[in-house]
């Protein structure tokens, strides 16, 4: 279990983490979400004592990180996969970590196997691709067989097979009763992996809730109805005091009513339906809605890629030709 209490970090006049109080519990994957610059990596660094909090505390199983005897055996983490000595082989990198933490060398081969790096174990890490480096970082996190695991953007650079693998790895670690804390920008991925969510924006806690509650609270659910008798359906709905909003493809969207009730209403009036589908808003939609006010770094619409005949692209082409 990881407990944060009033955790705060200030860099000059920038308040990176602002009084975070929450608990990351064992037996489930907890997703850590927030827009760019929200303070996720800073929080994780403070959890591992790599950064000193300005105020507040972090407790790992009731103790401060620095009080842990063999930290890698209690908490394994992947924060920055590039933080390795490039001249060392994957095997030697892990062996070095194992020896300094009282971990048997046999475990090095085991974790290399788990992450699929056995064939390149003797190759120098500096020649590794992004995904291979990420796998090596995950191997280091697993090395001490810790009860607590922390991953900062672990699927960065992984191919679809790798993403699938890490999703199942995290779920199985959680199913073994471990605490798994993972940050990610891939909302669709989080929706498949995490059971609980902690969401921050500009360093402040925005939500600490189960995935299903988070989606239900922060997004609209509605029912899509499509009928060859669209006009009549709309009249019937309106006669029952139900507002239907036409969608671009000719379907109707109804908010605040369940699909069963709408289906029965249509049946009573003998209206054929080609579609009656409850729409659950995605985690991505819920996240965007919740963090809309806390996004610091916006892309400027004028700077998006444009076809060459439009805007500055055309000027640039003229100047370049
Ligand atoms: N060492 C540092 N010195 C000064 N400011 C820092 C430092 N580290 C982080 N910050 C600032 O703290 C804020 C939070 O950064 P952090 O890296 O924790 O965000 P994040 O949520 O991990 O973002 P991302 O999703 O982009 O990884 C940012 O405004 C960042 O510029
Ligand atoms: Mg980060």
Automatic annotation (TrEMBL):
Keywords: ATP-binding, Nucleotide-binding, Transport. Residues 300-321 are annotated as: Disordered. GO terms for molecular function: ATP binding. PROSITE patterns: ABC_TRANSPORTER_2. SUPFAM superfamilies: P-loop containing nucleoside triphosphate hydrolases. InterPro entries: AAA+_ATPase, ABC_transporter-like_ATP-bd, P-loop_NTPase. The keyword GTP-binding does not apply. Residues 2-227 form the ABC transporter domain. Pfam families: ABC_tran. Belongs to the ABC transporter superfamily. PANTHER family: ABC TRANSPORTER, ATP-BINDING PROTEIN. This is ATP-binding cassette domain-containing protein. It comes from Streptomyces orinoci.
């Amino acid at each position: 279990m990881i407990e944060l209490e009033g955790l705060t970090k200030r860099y000059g006049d920038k308040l990176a983490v602002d009084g975070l109080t929450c608990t990351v519990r064992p037996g489930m994957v907890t997703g850590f979400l927030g827009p760019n610059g929200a303070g996720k990596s800073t929080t994780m660094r403070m959890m591992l004592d790599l950064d000193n909090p300005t105020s507040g505390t972090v407790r790992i199983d009731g103790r401060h990180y620095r009080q842990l005897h063999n930290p890698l055996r209690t908490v394994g983490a992947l924060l920055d996969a590039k933080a390795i000595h490039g001249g060392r082989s994957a095997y030697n990198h892990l062996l070095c970590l194992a020896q300094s933490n009282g971990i048997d060398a046999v475990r090095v081969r085991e974790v290399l196997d788990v992450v699929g790096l056995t064939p390149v174990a003797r190759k120098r890490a500096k020649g590794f691709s992004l995904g291979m480096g990420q796998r090596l970082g995950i191997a280091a996190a697993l090395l001490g067989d810790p009860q607590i695991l922390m991953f900062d953007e672990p699927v960065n650079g992984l191919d679809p097979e790798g993403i699938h693998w890490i999703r199942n790895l995290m779920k199985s670690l959680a199913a073994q009763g471990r605490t798994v804390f993972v940050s990610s920008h891939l909302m669709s991925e989080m929706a498949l992996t995490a059971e609980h969510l902690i969401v921050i924006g500009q360093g402040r806690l925005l939500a600490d809730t189960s995935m299903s509650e988070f989606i239900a609270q922060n997004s609209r659910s509605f029912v899509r109805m499509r009928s060859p008798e669209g006009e009549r359906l709309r009249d019937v709905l309106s006669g029952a005091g139900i507002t239907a909003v036409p969608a671009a493809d000719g379907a109707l969207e109804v908010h605040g009513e369940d699909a069963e009730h709408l289906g029965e209403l249509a049946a009573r009036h003998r209206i054929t339906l080609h579609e009656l589908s409850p729409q659950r808003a995605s985690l991505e939609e819920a996240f965007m809605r919740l963090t809309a006010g806390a996004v610091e770094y916006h892309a400027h619409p004028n700077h998006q890629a444009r076809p060459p005949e439009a805007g500055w692209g055309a000027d640039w082409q003229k100047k370049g030709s």
